[in-house]
Each structure stands twice: as C-alpha cells, then as structure tokens.
Amino acid sequence: MRLARVRYRGTQFFHTLLAPLRPIDAAYAAERLSLSEFALFSRMSRAEQQHAIAVCRALETAGHRDPDLLTAALLHDVGKIHATPYLWDRVIAVLTEHYLPRRAIRWSRGEPRGWRRGFVIRAQHAAWGAELAEQAGSSPRTVELIRAHHDPPGGDVALAALQAADDGATEVCKTIGEAVLWR
Question: Domain range holding 128?
Fold first, then answer.
C-alpha cells in the first residue's frame, strides 16, 4: 500500500475506534436530507455518520454544491445498516483486498455471516444502500452515485469527487471541484 493510503487507513481505524467519544452533527445532515433520507442516516452507526458528514463537508469545501452529490455523500455507506461491520471485519477485508485480491472477491459472495462477513459487507453495501435510498425517495442520480461509489468513475466527475472525498483525498476532491466550477 502506498504511504498515503496506509496513513488514511490508520486514521480511519482510530476514528472508528474513538467514534463513541465524538459528537455527531445531526443538524448538518438533517439540513441536507429529506425526512425519509434522514431516518436512514439516523440508523447508520455513529462512526458511519461521522464519516458521511466528513465526506459531505470535504465536497462542500471543495466547492461542490450539487444536492444529489451531497445527499449521496451522506448516504453512501447506508447499506451497512443491513449488516454493520465490526472493526476487525474492516481490517481483515481491507488487508486481504490489498494482498489477496482474488480471494477477497471470492469470499465476498453470499450472506454476511461468519469469517466472510466483512468481505460480503464491503462488496455489497453499495448495492444495499442504493436500494434503501431509492425506497426512501432519493433522486435517481443520488441512488446511482451510492450504487457506484466503489466502481471505477469512468468520466463521471461527481462520482470521482465522491470517491476522492470518501478516500480522504481532499486535495484531489478540491481539484475536481475546481474543474467542475470552471466548466
């Protein structure tokens, strides 16, 4: 793993570990989501809520104002309410994905149970989240951004910005935001 990626994953680990001690700015999310979307957001784990708000704020700081993108930022991990990953699920899945990618793909099929739980959640949460967002009345664009947030962005600038913010690459997110603002 590149040093920046290792640093980001380490920071993510400690944020998850310390999530119970940090407050959640629920008002920030409530201002940007419909009532049914906010009900979904409220069901997310504390760590996921904090992460979602950080992603949305990074996008706004980078100049993004698209409501579909900001809603997707707040709900991109909502599929994890289907099966909330434990901290060790995350660590094992991320490390295996990096060092044994073919096995990680093979282990990500099926139901989120047993030792494969983290792999299945990591692979399926985007699809689960898109379904939940659609049921909550989110726009088709928001639903698609949630569904694709782990896919290659192709030429989709909004998806690339969401992924950059999700990965903690705020400088990349800012550059993408500036490109969008000047188009």
Answer: 3-181
